[in-house]
Amino acid sequence: MLAALLPILLVAGCATAPGQSTAPTVPSARYVALGSSFAAGPGVTVSADNPATRCTRSKDNYAHQLARLRQLDLVDVSCGGATTAHLLGPWKELAPQLDALTPDTALVTITIGGNDVSYVGYLFVESCKGAEDRPALAKAFAMCKAMTARQPSFPAPAVPTDADWSKLAADLDRIAAEARRRAPQARIVFVDYVTLLPSGAPCPQVPLSGQALATAQATADRLARLTASVAKHNGADVLRASTLSRGHDACAAQPWSNGFVARPGVDPFTPYHPNLAGMTAIATALDRMLGR
């Protein structure tokens, strides 16, 4: 579980670069969804896979919702815990996600990069520190202890270095180029990560110190900028989920993501991940971006 964790309408960067398809996505067109848990949707309603797999794909993640809206033939190979390496190469029993692309693919969405820079992993570890010795967060801290007991040797995520960011940029470029090579007629859309954290002080759902909050926010902001830059450089679109979800962070009155601590009555629940409302907002924005 810890390994997996480590792992609408404002659309920026929609101008079409040379080589990007602008054709409407017609019913029955092949749509391939790539990415990490922020695409897969762990804890969002029910599993899309029967039997359920370790990838924790939801039947109501943004790809499945978009496919239903537009009657697309969806191939969802997103997987919780995935990094860029798992799009480019195999991951245990899983083939490289890019292998799902074919020359007749009409649409590709990509949400990846957060696990490469330990975004959610850092949030989880720092939130465990914040939950310690706080009676109101006893249940959350018990989860921290149980997970640490199962994986005592798992290293605490470090703040990403410049080398980490350079490698991520190179990997994202490789993914975009390979997607274009394998699916030359496809419209390629990078979907960045929804905003998890408040712009002001943390709330009970986000038990972070001020320093940890600032550090995690800096990582989120840099990841969003990098995703947009790679998309533009490679003639792809970008849906800025990070922008359209501002004001809907885990502390907001109408959150599009979960914090570390569940709100009353929220079940199922996956800490620091998009919820159903967030997935629906992204699907709606993608539908509008694609046009008719």
Walk me through what this model shows.
With 292 residues, the protein is α/β, with parallel strands linked by helices. It has one domain: Rossmann fold (3-Layer(aba) Sandwich). Helix content is 38%, strand content 9%. The chain is built from 10 helices and 5 strands; from the N terminus they run H-E-H-H-E-H-E-H-H-H-E-H-E-H-H. It has helices at 2-5, 37-40, 62-70, 84-88, 119-131, 138-150, 162-182, 210-233, 241-244, 276-290; strands at residues 30-35, 73-76, 105-111, 187-191, 237-239. Strands 2-1-3-4-5 form a 5-stranded parallel beta sheet, sandwiched between helices. Strand 4, helix 8 and strand 5 (237-239) form a beta-alpha-beta unit. The chain is globular, with a radius of gyration of 18 Å. The model is unreliable at 1-18 (pLDDT under 50).
CATH topology tier name? Rossmann fold
What is the overall pLDDT average?
87
Determine the structural class based on helices, strands and strand pairing: alpha/beta
Q: What's the helix-strand series? A: HEHHEHEHHHEHEHH
Strand content: 5-15%
Give the helix level as a range of percent: 25-40%
Per DSSP E runs of 2 or more residues, the count of β-strands stands at 5
CATH homolog superfamily: SGNH hydrolase
Radius of gyration: 18 Å
Strand order of the largest sheet: 2-1-3-4-5
Low-confidence stretches: 1-18
- Helical region count? 10
Outline? globular
CATH architectural type: 3-Layer(aba) Sandwich
Give the biggest beta sheet: 5 strands, parallel
Calculate the terminal CA-CA distance, rounded to whole Å: 40 Å
CATH class: Alpha Beta
Count of all domains: 1
